[in-house]
Amino acid sequence: MEKSIIKIVNMAFKYNKEDYLFKNFNLEIKKGSFISIIGKNGSGKSTLAKILVGLYKADGYITIDGYLLNDFYIKEIRRVLAVCFNDADSHFIGETVKDDLVFSLENLEYSKKEMTSSVEIISKKFKLENILEKSPDMLTNSEKEKVMIASCLIYKPKILLLDESIYKLNATDKKLVFKILKEYQREYGLTIILITHDLEDTLYSDDIIVLDKGKIVIHGSKEFIYEDDKLEKMGFNLPFIVKLSHNLMLYDLLDRVYFDSGEVMKKLWP
Predict the structure, then answer these.
(1) What is the maximum alpha-carbon separation in the chain?
(2) Is residue 122 within 8 Å of residue 154, measured between CB atoms?
(3) Is 105 left (phi over 0), alpha (psi -120 to 50) or beta?
(4) pLDDT surpasses 90 at 270
(5) If you write DSSP's letter for every residue of 9-52 in order, what string do you get?
(6) Comparing C-alpha atoms, which of 204, 91, 83, 202 is closest to residue 143?
(7) What is the mean pLDDT of the segment spanning 105-128?
(8) Which of 10, 80, 128, 207 has a Cα-to-Cα distance from 116 of 20 to 30 A?
């Protein structure tokens, strides 16, 4: 049985004297899984992210990689859980891209040789070699988001939490980033939690969680989530390939939902 790397039991949270956003909230995320979390504005997606990284305090029992989420263990938790929020500009600390990549390694007391090697490897993966000496204000929005994600992955955390932090990637960079994320999931057992408003992004995940006003209303594999029009009835715009699959299924041209256009082409024209 797969081990849970994040476990939330009976969590409760509210802003000041407002009504509870989360109450009796329960969730388990398996080690090495790729989870997409979606929901309308006010559903609690970003609040949940801030709770998990210790920026907001909630009642209940929460463990991350076996550590109880509290002030005593927060340092250990932040070593295993890397987070990218939706404002890449606020992420930058160093004067150059290279400085930013090295920052977390310095805190983890990597040797100079280890840092040089790690920067070289990650910059090649993310195609950052030509911008290493640039200052953040000289980067495009897409480059900023690539650097932000690269600086999180450079020290190989166990969990990567992406909170609306990929929407400014251009199409080429987004394809590259997802390729790298899947590689890290496969090779290092990285657990990925993607909070997004774009359902096209969920096609890269294994499971999908739908939040509504602090409650999980749907949780299952992407195959289960997209097997019918349940999300469309909730007001979400389905990914193009999913809509196409549903339409072709009506004419018995497909027998299931596909997530890759190449596979659809092969099925229609073998």
Answers:
(1) 61
(2) yes
(3) alpha
(4) no
(5) EEEEE-STTSPPSEEEEEEEEETT-EEEEEE-TTSSHHHHHHHH
(6) 91
(7) 93
(8) 80
> Is the separation of the CB atoms in 35 and 208 below 8 Å?
yes
Q: State how far the Cα of 185 lies from the Cα of 194, in Å rounded to an integer.
A: 13
Alpha helices in the chain (DSSP H): 45-52, 74-80, 88-91, 97-107, 112-125, 141-153, 171-188, 222-225, 230-233, 240-250, 261-268
Backbone angles phi, psi at 56, to 5 degrees: -120, 145
Q: What local confidence, expressed as pLDDT, does residue 2 receive?
A: 66
Q: Is the pLDDT of residue 1 over 60?
A: no
Q: How far apart are CA 215 and CA 25, in angstroms?
A: 7
Categorize the per-residue pLDDT at 93 as very low, low, confident or very high, splitting at 50, 70 and 90. confident
Specify whether the CB–CB gap between 105 and 155 falls below 8 A: yes
- pLDDT recorded at residue 76: 93
Backbone angles phi, psi at 161, to 5 degrees: -110, 120
Give the SS3 label for residue 200.
Answer: helix
The three-class DSSP label of residue 147 is: helix
Query: Is residue 242 pLDDT above 90, yes or no?
Result: yes
Summarize pLDDT for 196-218 with one digit per residue, the tens.
999 999 999 999 999 999 999 99
Reference 229, options 215, 245, 216, 217; nearest CA is 245
**Tell me, what's the pLDDT at 12?**
96
CA distance 2 to 26: 18
- Of the pLDDT bands very low, low, confident and very high (cuts 50, 70, 90), residue 107 is confident
